[in-house]
């Protein structure tokens, strides 16, 4: 079955446009990101290069998968939204990427995640101390890169990045606390995801404009676009975390179920009424006390996924992705910007909700 | 025997003056620091309050030992050095304390240290994830507090703090790498200590002046004072880490030897010529391969300490403390500032090299 959020497929030419936007963001920001990481003292530069997928665990250069690079693309489009050249957004793109990767390094360690982007995580390869230290270094570097721009607008940008980072940390704190709780409401889950994913996409979407001298109202509107885009992104991620194709996502089958994640489809299903929701609640309550969940068969996870779907958790999350997508586009109404940039921001939003990884 | 660095004892009235300066720094900055920490979402606010010694592990308020508070005192004096009111330095004092405590939270976890200031460390009480997370939050909060000041000078201050934080992280990286190496030179050890201790004291000593509008030359001179003060501070710390009185320092006897730290007295002793240095090198090389060092008797550690002293490591480190102290005072020559502030900075420098904890 095609999930509801994929029924709104972008036209092929629009997808090509998004590919070009992502590629541009990557091409323009990566050299600056690499130069920033090269500033780190050994062995932190090597550990960071491994994390970014530029070298393998033995130090050999790779042409590895460096992620979708949605954030750098947004930061450059954000500069254009303020009427500035895309280059103006580069320090913002790099700073946001550094903060994003700081959080990945620390979160993977806190969560005990052993794999990211088909590779062993930094703490698995280089040890917990390096994961902490290099995370810290990337965070510091993010501020350094932005403050080196030296303008009042750069100070405004740094302040927004700091606010976003604080929310990111709040989101991770909430996510950790959810693990120890039996029940999480849909509202709490959305708040956590808004902090953990929305805040930094909001920052990416506004930081280029701020660096380009946009006023606060424009920056706030772009931030709202990015925030809701982030929530749409996360809703899709939550769908892929259960029903995604492992060969495409790079994660295990039923990945979020294996990790007992209280993601949106799960909390939405548990909030529903009816036999499926009740049966799911019973199963998950038993699972929570069972350390052997890692040894469950494919069928056992498939049963849980079927109950989540039957209780409406999959459909609700698909609809939520579309609602957040629509709210993101709405946020751009009334903001004056070049028409091409507006269309690009629309196309990127479409891409975010219609993806398979 | 009175160590050489204590032969230069400050007069009692000067010590009273320093006590008052430290108390003023603590009194003026702590309420703002507490308000900043209160911004953290639960449970991070509680974990941070435990770390700062404001509450115990069960959440009850304490009137615990919150450290010497040299950094806040310096930040306020730094504002006065620029002719500003001490209050102008408060956001700087708070930001530096936040960065300092971010590094303590992460370092204690990376180093596996179970005790700090006579209490269990955060990772022991609240777990590794909270130590990482709350450290991150304090770092972000430091930038937030400074950037909220909103002036161009605050941007300059944030940039200096970011530079200092990067050095702090470099120093921790060096410290960790030293653990895995057989030999460390005196030069490498001083560079590590300059990064790990000097850089943040340098920032504390200049940040108030920057916030008060001082030019870069004045800020740089104050930074040099703080940097060498930090190296003097660390040299004394390294002496106390071996020969300190456990009841006063709050650490175990022979604390740094138990932890196999390649601190200044050790590397200076190993760099010396003669029978004691050779015997010490043999013992430490054997210790490095011995996981049972934790079970050594007091006598075994006392033997090593005696060899370090015989090889001249204790005397060299005492002299180094005095050299750095002199260089710190020299840095202030030629900087115009109120005479009282200059005397206060001198008195604080004396205090740093003549202390027992």
Automatic annotation (TrEMBL), chains A, B:
Keywords noted in UniProt: Magnesium, Metal-binding, Transferase
The UniProt record lists the keyword Magnesium: yes
SUPFAM superfamilies: Terpenoid synthases
Family the entry assigns: Belongs to the FPP/GGPP synthase family.
Protein name per its UniProtKB record: Polyprenyl synthetase family protein
InterPro entries, sorted: Isoprenoid_synthase_dom_sf, Polyprenyl_synt, Polyprenyl_synt_CS
């Amino acid at each position: 079955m095609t999930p509801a959020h994929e029924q709104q497929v972008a036209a092929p030419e629009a997808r090509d446009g998004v590919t070009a936007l992502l590629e541009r963001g990557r091409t323009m920001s990566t050299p600056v990101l690499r130069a920033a990481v090269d500033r780190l003292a050994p062995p932190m530069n090597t550990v960071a290069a491994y994390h970014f997928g530029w070298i393998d665990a033995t130090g050999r250069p790779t042409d590895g998968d460096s992620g979708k690079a949605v954030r750098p693309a947004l930061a450059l489009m954000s500069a254009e939204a303020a009427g500035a050249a895309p280059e103006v957004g580069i320090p913002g793109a790099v700073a946001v990427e550094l903060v994003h990767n700081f959080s990945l390094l620390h979160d993977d360690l806190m969560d005990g995640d052993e794999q990211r982007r088909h590779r062993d995580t930094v703490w698995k390869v280089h040890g917990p101390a390096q994961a902490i230290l290099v995370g810290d270094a990337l965070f510091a570097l993010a501020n350094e890169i932005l403050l080196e721009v030296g303008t009042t607008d750069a100070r405004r940008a740094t302040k927004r990045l700091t606010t976003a980072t604080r929310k990111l940390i709040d989101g991770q704190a909430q996510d950790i606390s959810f693990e120890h709780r039996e029940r999480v409401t849909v509202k709490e889950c959305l708040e956590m995801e808004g902090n953990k994913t929305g805040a930094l996409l909001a920052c990416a979407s506004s930081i280029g404009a701020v660096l380009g001298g946009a006023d606060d109202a424009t920056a706030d509107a772009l931030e709202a676009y990015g925030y809701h885009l982030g929530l749409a992104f996360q809703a899709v991620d939550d769908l892929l975390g259960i029903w995604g194709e492992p060969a495409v996502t790079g994660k295990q089958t039923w990945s979020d179920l294996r990790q007992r994640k209280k993601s949106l489809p799960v909390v939405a299903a548990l909030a529903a009424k009816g036999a499926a929701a009740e049966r799911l609640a019973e199963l998950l309550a038993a699972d929570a006390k069972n350390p052997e969940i890692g040894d469950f068969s494919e069928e056992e996870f498939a049963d849980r996924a079927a109950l989540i779907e039957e209780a409406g958790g999959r459909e609700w999350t698909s609809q939520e992705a579309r609602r957040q997508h629509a709210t993101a586009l709405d946020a751009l109404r009334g903001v004056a910007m070049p028409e091409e940039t507006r269309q690009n921001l629309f196309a990127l939003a479409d891409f975010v909700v219609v993806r398979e990884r």
